[in-house]
Every structure is written in C-alpha cells, then in structure tokens.
Amino acid sequence: MAKISRRGFDENDKRWFSDKELMKLKKAKEEVEWLINRDYKIEPVVNFVSNKYQFSIRQRDAIKRSVCSYKKKMIRESKKLPIDKVSEGTIYIDGFNLIITLEVALSKGTLIIGTDENIRDLAGLRGTYKIIDKTEEALNLIGMFFNEYDPSEVIFYLDSPVSNSGNLKYKILDHTKNWKFNTDVVLVNNADIILDKLDRVVSSDAAIIDKCISYFNIAKEIIDKYIQEANIIDLNT
C-alpha cells in the first residue's frame, strides 16, 4: 500500500495565497512581466520585485512559474496542439512532470496557472520522488484520458537519476492492462534533452516547451476534466 501523502501541500499556503496576498502577487507578476518584456533577465527581476513585496519562497516560486514574456507566450501558443490531434500519432510524455502535477492536483496542493495557460506545481522535488497513494489515481486519470482520445502510442520518459524512477516505470506498465493504446516507459539520463527535439510532447516545463517542435497541454486538460477540486492559483486576472 502506497503511503497516503499530500503532494505539494503546505499549510502556510492559506496565508501566502490569501486574498490580500493575491492582490500583491498579481501586481508583482505584472511588474515582472513588464520588465522581462523589455529583455531584463527573469531571475534577478523576480528577486528584485519579490524583495520589494517581502514575498516568501513559495510566493517567489509562484511568480517565477507563472510569468512569461509576451514573445515567449506567442511562441508557446503557436506550438500548442489541439486535443483532437492526439489520435494522429505517438505522444511523448515528460513523465515526472505530468504525474507530479496530477498528484499535486489530487492532493489539493497549490498549483499555478501561467500566462501561457500551463499549470505548474510548487512541489519542488528536485531529484527525489516517492510513489504515494495519489500516484495510482494520477495514472488512472491519464489512462482514462488517453483511452478517450486514442493515440497510436504513448511513450513516457523518466529521468533515471531521480529516486524511484524504476519503481514508477513498473507502476505505469502495471496500469497498461487497462489502457487501449500501446505504451512504453523509457528510463533516460536526462529526459529534457530528448523531449527538446521532439514534436507531440506532453509537458508544462517551460524549458522543454520553448525548445520542442510542438506540445499538448494535457495536464490542464486532465485537471479541467476530472479534478474540479484542484487548488489552482490564477494570477492572470
């Protein structure tokens, strides 16, 4: 039995993302984007603006994961494929990215929706991963979604240096008996390097979607469709 755990959940988020703090975060996001649209580097700009508002680390992460220059937003928009194209070929999934985002959504952990409409988490696992009870649910939802949209094949890429990547591979493969589409799971040293060069990628990682040929915003589709109770912070409004 996988450990019951709330991925990406932090009790302090009630304070960090209260109505009063959200007003400040939205203003800060606007200021950061004004500067990065004028070619200022994102890291120092986020630090500079966040220091002004005395934001916590979680709030700084939220700003960093939500902002996007107008130029990058347009590029990402042009690469984004409509969901009805899923059935037209192989899908290449950034495995940890998609699964962790869904685990956080199922845990009611804090998610951020970016200017580019991609949903990102604040879990910050960075090389460590454990299978939890929500992993099972996340994989069930992935299977339900792709069973409906009928791709010819789905390939998950997992970073082998991340702890428990091998266990997650076998957990995914165990679910394929309920899936109508062909599935493969590949352990690689660095998934980003492979996904960067592909089309029909599934990821919300800004570094990947800026480089890949085309991508699907599947995490948002699955959350919108199946996880209505997800805790999504929207700083765009």
UniProtKB/TrEMBL annotation:
Source superkingdom: Bacteria
Residue intervals of the DUF434 domain: 24-79
Coiled-coil regions listed in the entry: none
InterPro entries reported for this sequence: DUF434 (IPR007368), DUF5616 (IPR041652)
Domain DUF5616, chain residue ranges per copy: 84-220
Name of the protein: DUF434 domain-containing protein
